[in-house]
Amino acid sequence: MDNCYTDEEGSIGKAVHLARAIGDTEGRSVALYIAPHVRNQKKIAEACGVGFQCIMCKKLMLKVAKGLCGFVGADAIVTGESLGQVASQTLHNIRAEEQGLDFPVLRPLIGLDKLEIEAIAKEIGTYDISTRNAVPCRFVPFKPVTMAGIGRMTEECGRIDFDEMVGYALQNRREVPLD
After folding, report:
1. For residue 13, which phi and psi values (nearest 5 degrees)?
2. Using the 8-state DSSP alphabet, how is residue 174 labeled?
3. Per-residue confidence (pLDDT) for residue 3, from 0 to 100
4. What is the pLDDT of residues 10-24, one digit of tens each?
5. What contacts 95, CB < 8 A, 6 or more positions away?
6. What DSSP string runs through 27-93?
7. 8-state DSSP, 163
8. Is the pTM above the cut of 0.85?
9. What angle do CA 152, 76, 83 make, to 5 degrees?
10. How many CB atoms lie within 10 A of CB 97?
11. Torsion angle, CA of 38/99/106/27, rounded to 10 degrees?
């Protein structure tokens, strides 16, 4: 998800380097798709409670990923999340983000601590890339919700048109060449 305002911010370049490193580890090329996200982040910020920005963003990203899975024929979404590392990764928020997704989300790192994840990243060649400076997300609230209740999350979801935002992201996605 491209959350940058300009190409000079470097996040796409970082994603390209990470995709190449993963492809090298796997011994095959991988596809990298980038979808615009700033417009949709603004819509969330305008319509939803400020503390819900991160979990609404994550819910939207999962829905876009599900749509992309349909396009590429994938059977599941795989993330690099670990439990409790950021606000969108608390148990309550993960449950709220997945509500209604009806698609498998695999989290192979969920039970590992930071040091274990860093060791894996070093082994597969992504650590140095992932620790490079990048422009931080401009939409992270000062106090993000960490224990979203399903009722309140349902209320927040009713304030935005997920189908329209997912459609926009998927229609404007692009495959980024890795060669």
Report:
1. -60, -40
2. E
3. 84
4. 668 888 999 999 999
5. 150
6. TS---EEE-B-HHHHHHHHHHS-GGGHHHHHHHHHHHHHHHHHHHHT-S-EE----TTSSGGGSHHH
7. H
8. yes
9. 55
10. 24
11. -30
The dihedral sign for the CA sequence 133, 31, 164, 5: positive
Contact 97, 58 (CB under 8 A): yes
The two tokens of residue 24 are 């090298």
β partners of residue 34 = 174
Q: Which of 79, 72, 66, 70 is nearest to 31 (CA)?
A: 72
Average pLDDT rounded to a whole number, residues 107-128: 94
| φ and ψ at residue 176, rounded to 5 degrees | -100, 125
pLDDT higher than 70, residue 178: yes
Domains of the chain: 7-174 (3.40.50.620)
